């Protein structure tokens, strides 16, 4: 895992712009604390910050490859002069060893970066999408071709790893995070109506950001930049195909993919662990990892959980969270004999201004309040002993785990299910917008447009009707308009502390296969995530097999809510707040804690990022 940044200028000489290129790259230091490198040519600057995970000693970047096959990396890249390909790369290609064998010939490192670079060289003039489509992994990289004077920006299928870009009059700026692009002196920090819809809306946009002119490379896309312009080219999308396996065969296939995915994603040359909540997803993943490490003579698996002070005695169930995590975490840790650590957070940590500022700087946008802060603190604790962590993120979207999947009101609504169901629906920050701003943003119309666009994208299956057809639509919406929010949060909070978090349930083979399993198979036993439960039950304690889905935990200490309310009251009294031009802060005094918490982050973002709001 790493952080990348860069600049293409077809009319300029970037060899004279080292300081700016270095400044852009320097913003990625949190993502890559182990090394840095810069590649400068007349029309391109590539910057890299490295978190060493594979081939720690030799996998330096930027990495460049000449026609002769000579390889240069980091400072040595300047020695390569003829017809070169150069790369800055973030992420992991989990099947890089198979590609390495298929490519044959000389390799100078054991890194997956070199495999990606040589695979593109071997492809010659073929469509680069053919190369990318062969990779299994989470990745975002930039590849410069000197002969063609062409840059490729590549992002993995589900968008696990981020990549942003902004067109300029004569090229492009790019980076792993917005801050890398914003570090360029010519980039304004403008947020217009479209950007505010991103801030106050509840739907992920797979390409746009709050900052005007700044785009994300869409998941499953290659962006080609040349003198003739910019093209976004899709290389992967969910497809609908007939599912002919019965229940037993489907369960067996899910287990087969999970076993293979876990095996691939346990490869690391640095300490590795799992994130364990005691839920089905993370418990299954921890058990799979424990078994495979034991078989390889490398156990025990290290696991980490998060909890909040007082939850052991004062937990109160609610509509979406019926049980505390801790008892189930203990059951799993004992069952698989993991080397387990509980990370217990208190309100002092969650409310610490330094921690909240770190979250804002990690996101570059307002984020999700307490949930972000707790995740950031958890990852900081994990990073003290591990460099790589495996997470159960995305299993709910893939297997249908959320309560709204099983609520006819939510799935039957003519909108996104999470806005109509019980999980997150209700009072939102958008409800507090001043009338003028609300009219300009038209969040209701924005959400409706986004929903219509999403439904228009759904790959239909010929002959599929009724509930199965509707649940295909629901699954597609969650995978493409809800999951990106969680992947973005996970990436920012982990990489802010230099922790690589892998998400095995985002393996595209698993996502594609389960997407095409009809809904009556996905809950064949009347439970949420029936396929995952059946595929991994033999690995788990019975308590976890029977546990009902419970979301990421939250503090229940009333002192947290009281302090957020106090801080919001102080904000409402602050006539200098830039948020006052957008939101009725007096009305916000009566808003729920989560809304106040989020608005505190919006205010801080507007101030700290010197955002120019243009309506």
Automatic annotation (TrEMBL):
- Segments forming domain Glutamine amidotransferase type-2: 2-228
Q: Which reaction does it catalyse?
A: L-aspartate + L-glutamine + ATP + H2O = L-asparagine + L-glutamate + AMP + diphosphate + H(+)
Q: Which CDD domains match?
A: Asn_synthase_B_C, AsnB
According to its UniProt record, this protein's enzyme class is ligase
Record keywords, A-Z: Amino-acid biosynthesis, Asparagine biosynthesis, ATP-binding, Glutamine amidotransferase, Nucleotide-binding
Residues the record annotates as the site (Important for beta-aspartyl-AMP intermediate formation) are: 393
Which Enzyme Commission numbers does its entry carry? 6.3.5.4
- GO BP terms, alphabetized: asparagine biosynthetic process
Pfam families this protein is in? Asn_synthase, GATase_7
In this chain, ATP is annotated as bound at 275, 306, 391-392
Gene Ontology cellular component? cytosol
- Residues in the active site? 2 (for gatase activity)
What Gene Ontology terms describe what this protein does at the molecular function level? asparagine synthase (glutamine-hydrolyzing) activity; ATP binding
InterPro entries to which the protein is assigned, alphabetical: Asn_synth_AEB (IPR006426), Asn_synthase (IPR001962), ASN_synthetase/amidase (IPR051786), AsnB_N (IPR033738), GATase_2_dom (IPR017932), Ntn_hydrolases_N (IPR029055), Rossmann-like_a/b/a_fold (IPR014729)
**Chain positions recorded as L-glutamine binding sites:** 112
The family database entries (NCBIfam families) matched by this protein are listed as: asn_synth_AEB
Q: This protein is called what?
A: asparagine synthase (glutamine-hydrolyzing)
What species does this protein belong to? Klenkia soli
